[in-house]
Write a structure and sequence with these properties.
60% of the residues lie in helices and 9% in strands. By secondary structure, the chain is mainly α. It has three domains: 72 residues, no CATH class; 110 residues, Methane Monooxygenase Hydroxylase, Chain G, domain 1, CATH 1.20.58; 53 residues, Methane Monooxygenase Hydroxylase, Chain G, domain 1 (Up-down Bundle). A three-stranded antiparallel sheet has the order 2-1-3. A two-stranded antiparallel ribbon has the order 4-5. The chain is rod-shaped and about 120 Å long.
């Protein structure tokens, strides 16, 4: 209702909670003269990057400068801080817990797809960049969700005056769900790392097989090259130089060397 007008002030949402499960939206212009009933409370969602947000927090919010600086931090994480006069400063991440499940599932499905491709096709090469991006996203989510777990644990143990009787069970259930998501994120990172390690191992094995084959070929042709090089020197006394069948004898010797080496490699189980 008031979203477009409030946006120019940096205010995303402004709600008056009636204490009975209901709420009503208000405009930014109503904040200065707003009078709350004892059972009511005010919920404000500000855009931290908007210049009007800093102005209102520092001059009109009634919060201490320390609390305002915490709210305006650029690089922060979810945390729960008790403030003076029994006020409570609750800094939550942008991603709500109920939305985390979809993100975690998406990352897990991406890793599942890469694992299936690797297992079904030996020639498939997973994209290193995409797997690294999955690991970075999982690490980023975990960085913000891990402190939020501590918040839920504190809230489930605390008995604040504005909590309903069933709130402790609610926060405890959220905490359990968040722990499960964190474990899934850690498992996703490990699985992505295993896919990368598997590809590195396969690449190393392919390289070793290739070098081994080159080594076998080199061992076979090295004696043959020695013999042909020795017979090809331009000096007198070369055996068979005047024999019309000298070239045939040389070919038979070279072929015999190749067959003998192959038989020896087979006996040694090198090939």
């Amino acid at each position: 209702m008031f979203e477009e007008d409030n946006a120019q002030w940096g205010l995303v949402h402004a709600l008056v909670l009636d204490g009975k499960g209901g709420a009503r939206s208000i405009a930014r212009t109503e904040l200065d003269d707003l009078q709350l009933q004892p059972e009511q409370s005010l919920w404000l969602h500000w855009d931290r990057s908007h210049p009007q947000t800093r102005t209102w927090l520092l001059h009109d919010s009634g919060l201490s400068e320390f609390a305002c600086e915490l709210l305006l931090e650029e690089n922060t994480w979810p945390r729960l801080l008790p403030m003076a006069d029994e006020q409570l400063l609750l800094l939550m991440g942008e991603l709500l817990t109920e939305k985390v499940q979809g993100l975690v599932s998406d990352l897990s499905e991406l890793v599942d797809l890469e694992e299936e491709k690797v297992e079904s096709d030996e020639r498939y090469t997973p994209e290193n960049g995409s797997l690294q991006q999955i690991r970075r996203r999982a690490a980023g989510l975990r960085r913000f969700l891990a402190p939020q777990r501590e918040i839920y644990a504190q809230l489930s143990r605390s008995k604040w005056s504005w909590f309903a009787d069933a709130d402790a069970d609610y926060w405890n259930e959220l905490n359990n769900s968040l722990i499960r998501y964190l474990e899934e994120l850690e498992l996703t990172r490990e699985r992505a790392a295993l896919v990368l390690e598997s590809e590195d191992r396969r690449r190393s094995e392919r390289m070793n097989r290739t070098m081994y084959r080159f080594g076998i070929i080199t061992c076979i042709f090295l004696p043959m090259s020695f013999v042909t090089g020795l017979l090809g020197i331009n000096v007198g006394g070369i055996p068979g130089a005047d024999n019309p069948y000298g070239f045939l004898f040389a070919c038979i010797v070279v072929l015999g060397l190749a067959v003998g080496q192959w038989w020896m490699f087979r006996r040694l189980r090198w090939v």
